[in-house]
Each structure stands twice: as C-alpha cells, then as structure tokens.
Amino acid sequence: MDRRKFIKNGGLGGAALMGGAWASSCKDDPQEMENKTKSLSAPMVIATWDVPNATAKAYEVLEGEGSALDAVEQGVMVEEADVNNQSVGKGGRPDRDGHVTLDACIMDKDSRCGAVVYLKDVVHAVSVARKVMEETPHVLLAGEGARKFALEMGFPEENLLTEKSRQEWLEWKKTSKYEPVINIENHDTIGMLAIDSNGDIAGACTTSGMAYKMAGRVGDSPIIGAGLFVDNEIGGATATGMGEEVVRTVGSFLIVELMRQGKSPQEACEEGVRRIIAKKENYRDIQIGFIAVNKAGETGAYCIHPGFSYRKFSERGHENIPAPSYLQS
Ligand code: ASP
C-alpha cells in the first residue's frame, strides 16, 4: 500500500490492519475506535536510548517503502559500527578477559526470528542474526559456531576491541570490581521496533553486554521473549539494563501479552518493571528500561531510575522522549 495513502486513510486502512485483541476491544465502542485510530502513525520507529542516527537511518528505510525488518536491521547497524558507543558492536567494552563478545536478535512480522550469542570478531551481529533466521533451520547460534557461520556467510573478521575500551579495561583490572553502572552512558544496548507502511512490525536488539562480565555470560538482549518480542497482531517490546532480571521475568514477551489483554504500551511497560521490582529486593542497585509499541502506533516506556529515554521517529517528527521512572531520583 502506498505510504501516503496509508497515512491519509489512516482511519480505514489502520482499522483494517488491526488484529486480535486491539480490534475486538474497540469494536463495541466507535468513539474508542476513532480515538485509537487517530493515533495510528505508520511508518514509525522507536529505539532505546537517545540514538538519533540509528532511528534516522531506520526511518529513511521506511520512507523508501522498505520493510520494518530492513529498517530495524539497518537502524541498529549504525550503533554497531559506531566505535564511540561502548555498549554495542565495535568498540564495545570487553568481558573480564578482554574479549568483546556480541549478542543480538531480530524478529519479523511472521514471528520468524534469529539470534547470535557470544559472537567474537564480527561487527554486525544483528545481520548475522538475520542470516541465522533466513539461512538456517535454527533460531540461535552461539560462540565459535556463530563466528564460523558468520565468516562462511562472508562477514569480515575484525578486531572489535578499540584502544579506548582496552585502556578502560586495563584500568578496571586494577580493582576488578564488578559493579554494573546505572545509565552508564547516554546510549546503551539498542533495542529497536518499527512499523512499516504496510502496518507490519519488526524488532531488533544488539549489545556487547554488561561491561567486564564473566567470559561466556549472555544477557537478555539476544533472547527472544526477554530482550525483544514482536507479535504482528499486537505490537512489540524491547529492553535495556540488567539483563538477568529481564530474563527472569521474560520481560518483552510479558509486555506484549499485557498489550494483548488490553493494556496500553505505557501501562504494559510499567507492569513489566513492577514485576521485576516485586521479585528483586535490591532493585535500587539496577536499571531496567522497557519500550513498547502497539499495532496502532501508540508507544510507551518505563524504567526504574530516571535517565532512560527513547528515540521516536514518525511522520510527526524526530524526538527524544524521557521515560517515566519508578524511582524519582
Ligand atoms: N541488557 C544488556 C545485557 O544485559 C545490557 C544493557 O542493556 O546495557 O546484556
């Protein structure tokens, strides 16, 4: 469908594209249907943290009639290639032994998904994850197998440890104190969700994981259902922060399921964070941030500590939106 026509006819086109619970929850209330349909804004993209270059790239793909899947892949690749982002891709902070290891996943409108964990020497982990999805009968490849597969697929082999990250690691080794830092920088693990002009949703998530993690540690980011989940009938969610807690609560899946039950993306993200807080006595020591989008293009975000934000790019413009937080300071 032509994008401009789609936006212009948002009421009809949008309603026709709605699936599952959203449509049925609105069908008896024409006013609610009208209000919700007004908020429909495709194409659009959101991403964890203030990553304007990544969301701009994704939006460019969407404006060129690209799919949500292409948009999220190309969008997060911007951060993977940015050596100044020390939480993702090349330049990421290493594990305790000085190795940069990457985790990533991707999920499309048909619930196809692919992931890599503990990937060394290849910058674009998200693209390797997509190849796992498209070229293998599997969902997740790990470690040496993932690396071998990537090289066979033609991805270049590169040293991911930059001098800056190496020097910081050498400094860290003097004390070797493992203490995850809250809001370590303005842009962190990147999770991205996009809706294309057909109203289809896809998502991607990519990270170098917690700085100075144990060798072999994998967090939530490449785990479908934890760091990312998309259901094209309902919406998508993705996470950043202390991955172990997101895995324990299957955070992104939970948020999509809460939206299926009728919660708004904002309400669902708040409940996702509350579940973690309820089971974690020392929740003040950690940061978790969720973002979500539903089929109507409504978005939400919530975190434990202030400081987390998300980038949104739609036909209404490009903005950095601070997420409300459970703690106020
Ligand atoms: N969630 C990531 C992990 O646990 C880290 C992050 O978002 O900063 O590996």
From TrEMBL:
Superkingdom of the organism of origin: Bacteria
CDD domains cross-referenced by the UniProt entry: Glycosylasparaginase
Gene3D superfamilies per UniProt: (Glycosyl)asparaginase
Classification via PANTHER family: L-ASPARAGINASE (PTHR10188), N(4)-(BETA-N-ACETYLGLUCOSAMINYL)-L-ASPARAGINASE (PTHR10188:SF6)
Protein name listed in UniProt: Asparaginase
